[in-house]
Each structure stands twice: as structure tokens, then as C-alpha cells.
């Protein structure tokens, strides 16, 4: 395990112990700086990442993130057919305020369809979805308007909630900054790079302060730094009490989530 892997394991353990995202980010950055400046093997310097995380939690008395609250999204027995093909069969997921759920599975097993059913965009053939509160949805593609500036997207989202233009712009830019993006430029959405357009998409889905946030592989095209910011931001949103569902193919991040729904059919080795 090299220094990066050690730091990742350390961050994951802090997350598992529900240390607040901002505090976790701070101690991980400190450990990284210590390793960078002093060199050396992290195992020799800090010991096991799990033990060091436990010591940190005890020593600094970090207040843990709030425990999960009431169920915000309850999808039960969802079945969906397209023509003769059954894409989803009896899929269920309940997510509480303050939880992150990952939806995983092979290509074409119905992850996006499940999310669209949860968002109310597709009707299931059987089953029910109950949502308590406001929903934010970040589709895998699309979602932005080609001929608008990022700021104009933020103003539009704000207008839907009666938020003044200046305030909406500031809120949008602040949310974008969490992804390491300065969104004050004058580039139309259609001319943004693919990764930046996806940052705009993701930023918009969080702007309405949703109680339930549905994210369909929102990090496609993100560079490594943005990707790290993305998972930190998810942890922060979770700590604020949001119920989050993220479709992902990246199983190495599953230690950062609270629940996993595997939609791979059992005949193909799925866990569901
Ligand atoms: N509107 C539609 N009409 C007909 N078939 C559809 C429709 N939407 C999705 N499908 C089919 O349903 C299946 C599941 O699609 P879905 O996009 O939900 O899978 P996924 O697990 O998200 O895939 P991926 O991992 O590739 O993103 C696919 O075979 C797809 O072609």
C-alpha cells in the first residue's frame, strides 16, 4: 500500500466512522502534507489507517455526522418492461436522510431506468416510489441548455424557487467551486468541455437544495481532482441530511456509501 492508497483507506475509514466531511478533509490533508514533507512509509509514520482514524476521532473529539434520519426515498418492488423485455424485476431501495446509496450492476441491467423511475420520469409496470421532500436529478447526459451560460442556468433554477438572480448566481458559483470549477465564465454550455458540462449538470441538481438527490454516473469526464472533490461533496451533502442515490460502475468507492443495490440479475452473479 503506497501513500496514496493509505490516504484513501484513511479517508474511507473516517467516512465510515461518520466524521463530518469538512473535518475529515482537513485531517487527511494534514496527513498528506506530513507524508509529503517528511517522507517515509505511512504505515511506519501513522500505523494502520483504521487505527489512526480511530485515534483521530478520539483525540480531536470530532463530532460525528448526524445519524441517518427518516426514510426519504422508498422504492418498492419496482418492475419495468420495455416491450417483452423485463429490465427491472422487483427492485427495492429505501434511503434515509443522511445516507448515500449506490446502484451498481452490469451494463444494461436497468440502473438508469431505476433512477428515472425514482425521479418520477418513467412509470413502473409494478411497484411504488414514495418520496418525502424535494428531488434533484442529475442525468447521465443532457440536462444543460446549449445556448445558455452557466450563470443563466443557475438563474433559471433559482427562478423556479423564487430566488433573486444575483443570489441564484452566487449560489451556483459557490456550488461549482466545490467541484474545483469557477463558473463565472462567458462560455455557452455547448462549448464547455464534456467534463465541465457534467459539472454544470451536477451543480444544477444540487442547487434546489433537494432532500433526495439522484445522480446517474455524474462524474463522467471528471479529472482526478474533481473526482475526489465529487466524493467529498457527496459526503458533505449527506452530512447535511440529504438522501443520495448514485449510479456507479466504480466499485472501489463503495466504502464511501452506506447502502448498495446491485441490479445485476442473479443469473449473472448479482447480489440482489
Ligand atoms: N425508453 C426505452 N425503450 C426501450 N428500451 C429501453 C429504454 N430505455 C432503456 N431501455 C433498455 O433497457 C435496458 C436498461 O437500460 P438502462 O439504461 O437502464 O441500463 P443501465 O444499467 O443504466 O446501463 P449502463 O450501465 O450501460 O448505463 C437496456 O437494454 C436499454 O436498451
TrEMBL record:
PROSITE patterns: ABC_TRANSPORTER_2. Residues 73-272 form the ABC transporter domain. One of its GO terms (molecular function) is ATP binding. SUPFAM superfamilies: P-loop containing nucleoside triphosphate hydrolases. InterPro entries: AAA+_ATPase, ABC_transporter-like_ATP-bd, P-loop_NTPase. It comes from the Bacteria. SMART domains: AAA. Keywords: ATP-binding, Nucleotide-binding. This is ABC transporter.
Amino acid at each position: 500500500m503506497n501513500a496514496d492508497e493509505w490516504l484513501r483507506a484513511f479517508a474511507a475509514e473516517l467516512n465510515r466512522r461518520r466524521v463530518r466531511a469538512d473535518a475529515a478533509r482537513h485531517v487527511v490533508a494534514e496527513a498528506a502534507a506530513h507524508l509529503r514533507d517528511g517522507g517515509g512509509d505511512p504505515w511506519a509514520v501513522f500505523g494502520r489507517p483504521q487505527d489512526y482514524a480511530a485515534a483521530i476521532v478520539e483525540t480531536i473529539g470530532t463530532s460525528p455526522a448526524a445519524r441517518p434520519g427518516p426514510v426519504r426515498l422508498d422504492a418498492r418492488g419496482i418492475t419495468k418492461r420495455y416491450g417483452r423485455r423485463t429490465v427491472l424485476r422487483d427492485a427495492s431501495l429505501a434511503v434515509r436522510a443522511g445516507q448515500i446509496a449506490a446502484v451498481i450492476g452490469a451494463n444494461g441491467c436497468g440502473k438508469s431506468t431505476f433512477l428515472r423511475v425514482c425521479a418520477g420520469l418513467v412509470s413502473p409496470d409494478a411497484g411504488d416510489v414514495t418520496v418525502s421532500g424535494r428531488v434533484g436529478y442529475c442525468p447521465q447526459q443532457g440536462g444543460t441548455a446549449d445556448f445558455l451560460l452557466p450563470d443563466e442556468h443557475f438563474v433559471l433554477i433559482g427562478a423556479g424557487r423564487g430566488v433573486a438572480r444575483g443570489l441564484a448566481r452566487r449560489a451556483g458559483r459557490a456550488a461549482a467551486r466545490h467541484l474545483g470549477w469557477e463558473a463565472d465564465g462567458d462560455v455557452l454550455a455547448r462549448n464547455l468541455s464534456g467534463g465541465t458540462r457534467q459539472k454544470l449538470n451536477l451543480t444544477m441538481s444540487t442547487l434546489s437544495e433537494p432532500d433526495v438527490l439522484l445522480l446517474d454516473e455524474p462524474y463522467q469526464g471528471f479529472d482526478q481532482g474533481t473526482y475526489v472533490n465529487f466524493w467529498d461533496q457527496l459526503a458533505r451533502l449527506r452530512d447535511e441530511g440529504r438522501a443520495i442515490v448514485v449510479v456507479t460502475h466504480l466499485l472501489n468507492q463503495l466504502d464511501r456509501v452506506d447502502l448498495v443495490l446491485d441490479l445485476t440479475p442473479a443469473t449473472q452473479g448479482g447480489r440482489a
